[in-house]
Amino acid sequence: MTVTTEDLSRVDDIEYGVRFLASLPLHAHRDPAVLRGWAEAADRFGTELARTPSPAPAHVVESTGGLERGLLARYTSRPQAVELYTDAIAAAERLVARHGWRQWFPAGSVRAAALAHEAVHERLHHGPERAALKHALGHTALRLGRLRVPAHVAGAEELAAHAYARTVRGLGRSPLLLSAALAASYTADVPAPAPSAREK
User: Fold this and answer.
1) Closest Cα partner for 134 from 45, 40, 55, 74?
2) Which residue among 5, 94, 108, 133 sits deepest, i.e. has the most Cβ atoms within 10 Å of its Cβ?
């Protein structure tokens, strides 16, 4: 099956978020309406997080192999670093040019968005916002009377990081679109973005 530019770009950012969550095994049987609610909440959270921008990651390592992994970058906590995959970033820039998406992703913005995205993973890993995101999602792990323990939602941090990167870098669309376009250029199926809560 051929995936066209129109097929990719007519899907909005929230719908790509829903597809991403649905691609995760933990959410395989979730109600699509629940997934949409989580995608919307994570997107709002990431957008709000951009009001207080995170500093760029302190330690950045460039390497190749991102295309095989389906990643532009990834954050690791041990050691604490961001790995940028230059082959995937270059491929994404070529796709932006080929599809005529420069109004959404100006030249050089893929790398900048990847760094911003991973800075949020670092922030959520070490800061209080991780608990705030759980509360924003409204998913409950345990309820005892009026006491509610919020639950982790797999993939929500990824969606929040994409929304943050879109907002803080002033992009017209979420980098989720680039993830889908990259995957479509290497597979025959319409893809969901790479399923890792800490990788872009």
Assistant:
1) 45
2) 133
